[in-house]
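Following up on my earlier thread - several people asked me to post the actual chain instead of describing it. Fair enough. Here it is, all 157 residues.
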Amino acid sequence: MESREAADDGLVVLKREDGEAFVVVTRPFAAGTVIRRFSAEQTLAAPTWLTVQTGPDQHIQLSPSHLRRINHSCEPNVFFDTDELAIIALREIAVGDELTFFYPSTEWDMAQPFVCGCGTKSCLGTIRGARHIEAQQLDRFKLNSHVKRMLAAPANS
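Reply from S.P.:
Thanks for posting it. Predicted structure:
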């Protein structure tokens, strides 16, 4: 790990030798705990690789900006609740753990799909957004209300 950018909220941004940034915790969090609230620095109509979708045609750049460095995992430990604007621990998180969330829990159709490198046993492979994942696969994930509504829409049945 090359560099470290401290935040005052129990989170720190680190960079791997390849330059990839990620967020770890500096204090433990119990399952169900609100780790951090967030807001919109900017609201956009279309996704970018650094936005979080909060509605069918609404994507936000997170504030504070260090939250944009929370990476994807197919076995996430946090949930971005876009109704409450809060990051919530899905399970116990220990000091030094990297925070990860399931991108399709907020994203319907991603601006920049990618081959997942999470390395978990349940890895889904290419991540393109909830629209591109079988419903039975999505059942094991906590999803935001806008994603649930989009999945239930007649065009997706």
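The CA atoms of residues 23 and 67 lie 8 Å apart. That should answer part of your original question.
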